[in-house]
Specification:
The structure is a homodimer. Chain A is mainly beta. Helices cover about 0% and strands about 50% of the residues of chain A. The first copy, chain A, has no helices and eight strands. In chain A, the strands form two sheets. The first copy, chain A, has a five-stranded antiparallel β-sheet with strand order 1-2-8-3-6, with no helix packed on it. The first copy, chain A, has a three-stranded antiparallel β-sheet with strand order 5-4-7, with no helix packed on it. In chain A, strand 4 and strand 5 form a beta hairpin. At the A-B interface, strand 1, strand 3 and strand 8 of A face strand 1, strand 3 and strand 8 of B.
Chain lengths: ~100, ~100
């Protein structure tokens, strides 16, 4: 498998794929295409997360902070920091690499 | 900082930068430009490593297995697996993202 391969062309459900899982580390590829978190939904996860956008673009809310991510931009989301996806590019797949640990 | 920003143009020393370090997880960006491991040198590290090439290309040896990596190709290098970099593209920076964990 390759990070940039097997990207659907359009109008697809958001993809979550585990690329690696070992001990207390899990690495996922997420591919979005216009998806956002449902209204009022917030992630509140027990794991630490480090995430980078590799293609496309996205806007996150982390507590009350808005974070815009373009390719190469990365972010640490501490465990239990409430966050949600406000927006991803509707016209191009957004490829995220997310590292969950600890 | 951005994963794809501040890449030297040519003839530079290999760059190792820690993008994130927290608990038992460390994430590094490595930028190579033709560098390889010195003859006879092998990495033998206590941490698990997951590495992906995002730009450029590289050839690793992992024990006696040769692994060619192009953009998007990734690899798990278990703790204490002997490995070395045989080759990286001399004409284009190779950008690696490496996740080390405990």
């Amino acid at each position: 498998m390759n990070l940039f391969a097997d990207i659907p062309v359009a109008n697809f459900e958001e993809l979550h794929e585990t690329l690696h899982s070992h001990g207390k580390c899990r690495i996922e590829r997420i591919v979005s295409c216009g998806q956002a978190s449902p209204p009022g939904f917030w992630y509140d996860q027990a794991e630490e997360e480090w995430v980078v956008v590799l293609q496309g673009a996205a806007r996150l809310m982390c507590d009350d902070r808005m974070v815009d991510l373009k390719p190469g931009d990365f972010l640490h989301i501490p465990a239990h920091q409430r966050h949600r996806v406000e927006w991803t590019t509707p016209d191009e797949p957004t490829i995220w690499l997310a590292v969950f640990y600890g």
